[in-house]
Design goal:
Creatine Kinase, Chain A, domain 2; ATP-binding; three-stranded antiparallel β-sheet; Glutamate--cysteine ligase; alpha+beta; globular; 46% helix; glutamate-cysteine ligase activity; single chain
């Protein structure tokens, strides 16, 4: 335990300080594919009963038309967040006509590449812009890769906690700058230690053979339809999943917010030869927003992002630059196929303890080989996390993953105790104990459970995920009447809002794009 960490723990454990931690907020974004009752990707349009994906605050689509995204508000109690997520699931199940929600991160058996439908957002210019962005993703990374689903976990620490920490440290920055620096420090530690999350929560050690489209790979064959790696935790987060040669040159090591912003601004303005060869417009059709490394900032694939709620037509980096970091978005969480909502309360409580630990632990800036070492540790656990006697690197020295994880658990334990002191009870410590058990018994990890279940049932990955999809649909099928009324009203409002946006457009999409390019110059 570092002196900085111990000092912050003592400070925040004081009776007049600890209660501020009750106001940490957490929100969840869960992605899931719609599939037919035969386990195939649903090719139908976004159900009208779910409202407009352009304007709905809780139910939208991500890349593909059948890739739903459920978004909760940020709540001070993890149980509230999970309750809202359950309401969204129950309502959605109630209106799907002969379709199910896919239970896993890696996709079901997919149709041919060109038959995967890209999400549509209506005829407005902003709706067409969102569609064009996804067209660009398809030509850059393939439609298949964009069908992978995950959970994004949003977390913030209340401003009052940053005030306490800043006053104690006698820091003279503005509170906005101090808070941003602290969140950047949290992000550095998250990147250092997120390999632990891959071991504990990685749930995608296998994939349907169709996902690879006969491309070369280094996976083993589990059965006629399934490829896997014997010790993998999360193929979703491996080079098999979200990969991009173009993005390999983006190196925001999060030593300060401006470094991050500058890296993204450079990427959205730097041409990439392979994308230049594709072009932006051909034969009367738009192909991508631009030919740069990134079309927009959100295209950058990262395990965690600094975030600030945007206002009006602000770009994400503009909001961060003007008003600083408001919360972080952890993006490396697999969907647990055994859980009806892909995540449960103990996992959420552990993530909160982990993120508070990342915030309070000393976080030196990255230098030398630290960034590549951090990235390699992450990939090692993603691909081999359950291998016996696995070794990672820390400060250029080999260290047992088990030993390092044990050290981290001791620090996270102190943060779990702090959060339990704030909230009352022992839920955070109990959640942490569940994760410690996974370190002692690898068969308790979701990735091991997926492979063990396939072997026990003599079934493929797709068969297992489909059976679990059916099971979860039965579990979450009957929403309360007031929940139905609430989401029916949101759906109707979102459709009306989309129609108003479409009616207000005063220029063609070509003119809209010309104006878009002009504002960037």
């Amino acid at each position: 335990m570092t002196n900085v960490f111990a000092s912050r723990l003592r400070l925040l454990s004081q009776p007049d300080a600890v209660l501020h931690l009750k106001n940490c907020l957490q929100g969840i974004e869960r992605e899931t594919l719609r599939v037919t009752d035969g386990g195939q990707l649903a090719l139908s349009e976004h159900p009208k009963a779910l409202g407009s994906p352009l304007t709905h605050s809780s139910i939208t689509t991500d890349y593909a038309e059948p890739l739903l995204e459920f978004i909760t508000q940020a709540h001070p109690e993890a149980a509230q967040t999970l309750a809202e997520l359950e309401d969204i699931h129950r309502f959605t199940h109630s209106v799907l006509d002969g379709e199910l929600l896919w239970s896993a991160s890696m996709p079901c058996l997919l149709p041919s590449e060109q038959d995967i439908p890209i999400a549509r957002y209506g005829s407005s210019n902003i709706g067409q812009f969102k569609y064009l962005y996804r067209i660009g993703l398809s030509v850059r990374y393939s439609r298949t890769m964009q069908c992978i689903a995950g959970i994004h976990y949003n977390f913030s620490i209340p401003e009052s906690v940053w005030v306490i920490l800043q006053q104690d440290s006698n820091n003279k920055q503005s509170l906005t700058d101090y808070q941003s620096d602290c969140y950047i420090a949290l992000i550095r530690n998250f990147r250092r230690y997120s390999w632990l999350l891959m071991y504990l929560f990685g749930a995608s050690p296998a994939v349907d053979k169709s996902f690879l489209r006969d491309k070369p790979h280094q996976l083993d064959t589990l059965d006629e339809h399934t490829l896997y790696l014997p010790y993998a935790t999360s193929l979703r987060m491996s080079d098999l999943g979200y990969q991009s040669n173009a993005q390999a040159g983006i190196t925001p090591c999060y030593n300060n917010l401006q470094n991050y912003i500058d890296s993204l601004l450079e990427a959205v303005s730097t041409p990439y030869p392979a994308y230049e060869a594709i072009g932006t417009y051909k034969d009367g059709q738009w192909l991508q927003i631009n030919t740069n490394i990134l079309q927009i900032e959100n295209e950058y694939y990262s395990s965690i992002r600094p975030k600030r709620i945007t206002e009006g037509d602000e770009r994400p980096v503009e909001a961060l630059s003007k008003r600083g970091i408001q919360y972080v978005e952890a993006r490396c969480i697999d969907i647990n196929p055994f859980l009806p909502m892909g995540i449960d309360l103990p996992q959420s409580l552990f993530l909160n303890s982990f993120l508070v630990f990342c915030a309070l632990q000393d976080s030196p800036v990255f230098s030398g080989n630290a960034c590549p070492e951090t990235h390699q540790n992450f990939l090692t656990v993603v691909n081999q996390g359950r291998a016996p006697d696995l070794q990672l690197k820390r400060d250029d020295q080999a260290i047992s993953m088990q030993d390092w994880a044990t050290e981290l658990f001791d620090g996270i334990q102190a943060c779990a105790e702090l959060l339990d002191q704030a909230h009352g009870g022992q839920e955070h410590q109990q959640a942490l104990a569940q994760q410690r058990a996974k370190l002692a018994d690898v068969n308790l990890t979701p990735s091991a459970q997926v492979l063990n279940a396939m072997r026990e049932k003599s079934c493929s990955f797709t068969q297992l995920a489909f059976a679990l999809s059916r099971q979860h649909a039965d579990t979450l099928r009957d929403p309360a009447p007031e929940i139905v009324q609430h989401y029916q009203a949101l759906a109707a409002q979102s459709i009306e809002q989309q129609l108003r946006i479409e009616a207000a457009d005063s220029m063609s999409f070509d003119e809209y794009m010309t104006a878009y390019y002009a504002q960037l110059n």
